[in-house]
Specification:
The chain contains six helices and seven strands.
Length: about 170
């Protein structure tokens, strides 16, 4: 026995057609989005601009961090020449500091630079904590100050930061 045996066949047929059209529309939209993602013009996809919200020269004034993967890609791009210099001229925290450490050869700081370290989290679950490992010298600095805090931020001000990054020439 069919569940919808009381519904006229013509109504069922219209329902199937409408359902099919919605499914087709969904596939079309998904296909177009996939086409756009696959065919991104690399000149328009700039991980440095996405991670640090900057142009060239790149001046970071207040960056709270974000996706570690994006910042890692941005560091690789900067080291490959995507930016001549990245200037930290304010707060650079979390993944931003990870970026500044990895791309240290092309990063300089100003007296306004403040680097922020903390224990990272995975996705939206703030209970699942991870620790990003920095270069040995920065790792030692963090550990001497109690390690990566799970709450709040360990700040490295200019006086200490200039031991790790070069000071930028006057802007």
């Amino acid at each position: 026995m069919r569940l919808l045996s009381w519904v006229p066949k013509s109504v069922l047929m219209v329902g199937r057609i409408v359902w099919g059209l919605f499914a087709l529309l969904g596939m079309l939209i998904t296909g177009l989005l996939a086409f756009e993602i696959v065919n991104l013009d690399p000149r328009k996809f700039d991980p440095v601009a996405l991670a640090l919200n900057c142009d060239d020269p790149c001046i970071v004034k207040d960056n709270p961090g974000g996706s570690i993967y994006l910042f890692q890609v941005a560091a690789d791009k900067v080291l490959d020449g995507a930016r001549k210099r990245v200037i930290i001229d304010g707060r650079c925290a979390s993944s931003c500091v990870f970026f500044a450490d990895k791309a240290r050869a092309r990063v300089c700081i100003t007296p306004r630079a403040v680097m922020g370290f903390h224990q990272g989290t995975v996705g939206d679950d703030k209970r699942l904590r991870i620790t990003l490992h920095h270069s040995h010298d920065i790792e030692q600095w963090v550990m001497k100050r109690g390690g990566y805090p799970s709450n709040g931020m360990l700040e490295m001000r200019f006086a200490d930061a200039k031991k790790f990054w070069p000071v930028c020439p006057s802007l």
